[in-house]
Each structure stands twice: as C-alpha cells, then as structure tokens.
Write a structure and sequence with these properties.
The protein has 374 residues and is α/β, with parallel strands linked by helices. It folds into two domains: 10-37 and 169-220, no CATH class; 57-166 and 222-251 and 273-373, Rossmann fold (3-Layer(aba) Sandwich), CATH 3.40.50. Helices cover 37% and strands 24% of the residues. It has 13 helices and 16 strands. The protein has helices at 10-21, 26-35, 57-60, 62-78, 96-105, 111-114, 124-134, 222-238, 284-293, 304-310, 313-323, 326-340, 365-373, and strands at residues 24-25, 85-90, 115-120, 141-144, 155-160, 169-174, 177-185, 191-199, 217-220, 240-249, 259-262, 265-267, 277-279, 282-283, 297-303, 349-355. Strands 2, 3, 4, 5, 10, 14, 15 and 16 form an eight-stranded mixed beta sheet that branches. Helix 4 (62-78) packs across helix 5 (96-105) and helix 11 (313-323) packs antiparallel against helix 12. Bound molecules: S-adenosyl-L-homocysteine. S-adenosyl-L-homocysteine (SAH) binds at residues 42, 48, 56, 58-59, 91-93, 97, 120-123, 126, 160-162, 165.
Length: 374
C-alpha cells in the first residue's frame, strides 16, 4: 500500500493503492475494510446493539452466554477438570458472552479457581470495552492479538461470529475458465468489482466447483483455513475442545455470500469501505475438514436451535421467568425465540465442536448419543 495520508478516507487510500498496484483480490479488500489499523471497521468502533450496525446472540440474551458457560463446565469435567486450564474466546466483541459464561460457571466448585481467561482480540476499542465488562469477574484475564502466545496447556476455545469476519476470496467461471474476483476502478474512477484478467491456476478451484457453469461464483478462505489449522494444532497438542458458532452452510456450494451491513440494513460491499461490517457465510464443511486433518474429533455442525435446546434453553428460560413479572417474562420469551426460531437465528447459525481425539463426546452430543441408543 502507498504511504498512507491520514487525511484520506480508507476509500481514497484503496483507490490510490489500486492506481499504483492494480486491482485488489476480495480478501485483501475485506481485510483492509475490517482490520486497517486506523480506518478498519472493528478497529475504531463498537458496532453492536440497537444503536450499532448489527446484534449478536450474546447481546440478545444472557441465556446464550449462560448455556455456553454450562457447556464449558461440562467440557472441563469431561477433560477430568484440569487445573489450570485456559478458556479462550476468539473475537469477543463487547465481552458479554464471557461475562455471562463465567457467572453461570461459578456454581461449579473449582471452575473459577482453575480457569485462566484469555481474550483474542485485534481491536483496541473492543479490548477496552471487554476490560470494563470483565472487571467485575475478579478473574485475571490476558489479552492476545492471536493464538500464538497462548500457554501450551489444556484449552477450551469458544468463538461466536468470529470466523465470518475473516476474509474470503472468490473466483468466477467465464467461458475461458476461472478468474479471481477483484476490486478495481470503473470508468468513473470509482471502486468496482470485476474479474482479474489472468486465469487462476486449476489447483485453486475446489473439486466440488469444477463442473460449474459460466457465471458461477465460488468462495473459499485461506485465512479461515489457516486459523482453523492453528486452533486444531493447539487442541491436538495441548488437549481441550472448541465450540464455534457462526452463520453459514454445512455443505460447500457455489455462490457469493459476501455481504455488507450498516445500521441493521444490507448495503453494497463497496459502500463506504471501513464504515460497514463485511462478513461472508462460514463453510462449516471446510472447517470440519481442517479439524479432522489435524486428528481432532468433530461433532456437528448442528443448528443453533438444536444446540441451545440440547443445552437446556427451555429449562433456563423457566428458571429466569420464575423471578420476574409478566413484562420481564415476555422479554425473556421473545429473546429465546430470536435465538432459536428457524425464521430468526435458529437455523442459519450452526454450531461445530471439535475436541482432542481422546476426549469423550461433549454435551449436548453425549446426551443425544445416549437418547439415540435408547
Ligand atoms: N463474539 C462477539 C463479537 C463478534 S464480531 C459477539 O458474539 O458479540 C467479531 C469480533 O471478532 C470482534 O470482536 C472483532 O474485533 C474480532 N476480530 C475480527 N477479526 C479478528 C482477528 N483476526 N483476530 C481476533 N479478533 C478478531
């Protein structure tokens, strides 16, 4: 990238880069929009909630984090209650999920004494928010830029809407073959998505996409595969488990899922770079393959709806509603509906668990297996 002029917007800087170096592959564009040290979307703001651009499950209801807390407790027990063990959240947003999780997990004797909390976060603004949110837990917490600085001891990873923020590449089939989709400049000198003139090497085209027709778009993400591989290596070497929740598909397929959101509305991916959230569906089959290649056992993906039901959202809701008045009860029921209903987050969001191969099945899969045998 040319020497940045801090007076310039990110859009102007990207235009300048394209003028000098040529069009940008979509993953580089996405990375600049989200992670540019000064103008990147996550680097400079708190994007969550009603006043922000989008709302995530932990921000909808405390039940989400509490049920993940129960999952962490039960996984820790399945791992024979290692002391110490490391609980790592990837991309923790406001820190709400970790705070709810730790509060729920406190009921299990020994958990708080053994747990070492780690937050993997690249945004200084969100890290400051997380520090505030977690201050009340009384547990010492360490922040990391990536997972390479984690201790080599048993680790439980959790991540909600983490992978969807890592950049994707796209290729599109023409009559002549497959070309990478890139951000270049149109005749009006504005940003425009087009195809790179060179064809991509055959080896890049995923097997399942090869027979496609002209016009087909295929998405894949070396950045996600690389992250998944490092996570899997950590669990394989140190022991532990991971729970990943994201929106996405369970089977690879063609199509362009890259989308931009601003103030809860979809906008064009080229609209005000760095000012809008950019995400793409997570290819769970690709993640699962990375974990299996590293020798981990995998469970799911299942829908968020099925996972939360298995972890006892109905019982949790009942407990919470016992305490409050009619208005509070309606609020809790509505939040639960948003988390599990097929028309809301329940089906689009999926849960994938991967564990060290020697760990017995984690919840809710252990219970599901038992019921299936009956
Ligand atoms: N898990 C939170 C936030 C999801 S948004 C929730 O459910 O509310 C994505 C989060 O990932 C943000 O905190 C963002 O700053 C962080 N993030 C994005 N890319 C990252 C990366 N490469 N490494 C670590 N954190 C990242």
């Amino acid at each position: 990238m040319p020497q940045p002029d801090s007076q310039q917007t990110l859009e102007q800087q990207i235009i300048e880069t394209i003028r000098q170096d040529g069009p940008l592959p979509l993953d580089r564009y996405m990375n600049l929009c989200l992670a540019h040290p000064e103008h990147g979307y996550y680097m400079s703001r708190d994007p969550f909630g009603r006043g922000g651009d989008f709302t995530t499950a932990p921000e909808i209801s405390q039940m989400f984090g509490e049920l993940i807390g129960i999952w962490c407790v039960s996984s820790w027990q399945t791992l024979q209650a290692p002391d110490p063990f490391h609980l790592v959240e990837l991309g923790p947003g406001r820190g709400t999920l970790m705070a709810d999780l730790l509060r729920a997990a406190k009921v299990m004797p020994g958990f708080h004494d053994s747990v070492r909390v780690h937050m993997v976060e690249t945004s200084p603004v969100l890290r400051a928010l997380q520090e505030k949110t977690l201050a009340a837990t009384g547990l010492s917490t360490t922040w990391h830029h990536d997972i390479s600085s984690l201790p080599q001891e048993p680790t439980i990873f959790i991540g909600n809407e983490f992978f969807d923020a890592l950049p994707v590449q796209q290729i599109q089939k023409s009559e002549a073959g497959w070309h990478e989709r890139v951000v270049g400049l149109g005749e009006d000198a504005k940003l425009q998505v087009g195809l790179a003139s060179d064809r991509v090497p055959e080896a890049i085209v995923p097997d399942w996409a090869r027979d496609g027709e002209a016009g087909d778009i295929t998405e894949f993400s070396p950045a996600r595969a690389d992250y998944a591989m490092h996570l899997a290596k950590h669990v394989a070497e140190c022991g532990g488990a991971m729970l990943l929740i994201d929106y996405g598909h369970t089977r690879p397929g063609t199509g362009d899922t890259l989308q931009a959101v601003s103030q809860h509305n979809p906008v064009d991916i080229l609209h005000e770079p760095g000012e809008c959230d950019l995400t793409a569906h997570v290819d769970f089959a690709a993640l699962e393959a990375c974990f299996k290649d590293a020798g981990l056992a995998t469970y799911g993906p299942v829908t968020q709806s099925r996972f939360l039901a298995g972890m006892g959202i109905a019982e949790r809701m009942e407990m919470l509603t016992k305490r409050g008045g009619a208005r509070e009860r309606m609020k809790i029921a509505e939040a639960a509906r948003r988390l599990v209903a097929g028309t809301e987050m329940g089906h689009l969001f999926k849960v994938l668990i991967a564990t060290h191969k020697d760990m017995p099945a984690p919840q809710p899969f252990a219970q599901m297996e038992k019921e299936a045998k009956r």
